[in-house]
Amino acid sequence: MDLTVPEYAYMFGFLQADGHLARGSGQKGRLTVELSAQDVALLREFQKLTPYYSSITERTRSTNFADVHTSAIWRLCSLEARNKINALGLPYGHKSRTIAPPSGAFSARDYLRGIIDADGSVGSTSQGFPYISLTTASTAIGAYVCSYAQQVTGATRTLKRNARDGIYNVLYTKENSQRLAADLYYEDCLALERKRVAAASLTAWIRPADMRVAPERRRWSEQEDRVLLRLGDYVQAAKELGRTEKSCCIRLWRLQTKKLPLPTHQ
Fold first, then answer.
1. Is the N or the C terminus of the chain less surrounded, counting Cβ atoms within 10 Å?
2. Rounded Cα–Cα distance for residues 133 and 127 (Å)
């Protein structure tokens, strides 16, 4: 499983996000991936890529989302295969917060497409705006997505877990999502077919002539915070930092009331 090969990088990203590695008694255990039956073609591709015996079965059951739901399950039991996948960074058992990008060389956009196909969404909002999003509990994965997408789109994102369930939600819309989709879902790449179709559809959106392009939000740096605290005057700080008085006033109040962490090495 050479992760510099696009297909294996994609497969590993998908397994990290949507696969489950379980231990059994002795040296027994299995790797499983369960998808909707409509996505069984992807599991067959994984089966072809794997030089060990594996099986694909189907089951039909009632779920919270449908009275009748048919899923396809890929199972791989080989100890050698499990050891390899585990060594690359797929833990046994619960893994949502601990997975991270591989430490060695790997094909970045293929790996990330695997993560998005498993745990992300691609499509259009109710207002018709194209988007790509990722939901993850892993800080390392969330940070990697933000870093990679910034290189492709120029858009910056700040990671923050939501208060309800402690999950990161990373979202790109409009032109940023179009650029990211074009990079990740290139011609003839291995992908979930429905996500590939959705990614291709994003190109149809054109910004209306009267829709303003909002500038990227300027992030506060620790150096700016130090200047703001040293001056203690938002009017003077606005002139020195090239920011609005309103933003300096709000930032200074948040720092002084410790609603924001103070900069280090003041």
1. C
2. 16
The single-letter code of the amino acid at 17 is: A
H or E element: which one contains 228?
Answer: helix 222-231
Q: What is the chain's length? A: 266
DSSP string, 73-106: EEEE--HHHHHHHHHHT--BS--TTT----SS--
- pLDDT exceeds 90 at position 187: yes
Which of 184, 41, 19 is closest to 85 using CA atoms?
Answer: 19
Q: Cα(72)–Cα(60) distance, rounded to whole angstroms?
A: 9
Average per-residue pLDDT for the chain: 91
Residue 194's pLDDT band, with cuts at 50, 70 and 90, is: very high
Per-residue confidence (pLDDT) for residue 266, from 0 to 100: 54
How would you list the strands of the sheet with 120-124, edge to edge? 120-124, 130-136, 168-173
For the segment 143-172, what is each residue's pLDDT rounded down to a tens digit? 999 999 999 998 888 888 887 888 999 999
Give the separation between CA 156 and CA 218, rounded to whole angstroms: 9
Tokens of 87: 């060594």
pLDDT classification of 24: cutoffs 50, 70, 90: confident
Task: Give the N- to C-terminal CA distance of the chain in Å, as an integer.
Answer: 48
Average pLDDT over residues 5-14: 97
- 53 vs 2, 33, 46, 243, CA distance in Å? 19, 15, 11, 62
In three state form, how does the secondary structure of 245-259 look? HHHHHHHHHHHHCCC
Q: How far is residue 76's CA from residue 52's CA, in Å, rounded to a whole number?
A: 8
Query: Both tokens of residue 159?
Result: 């990671």
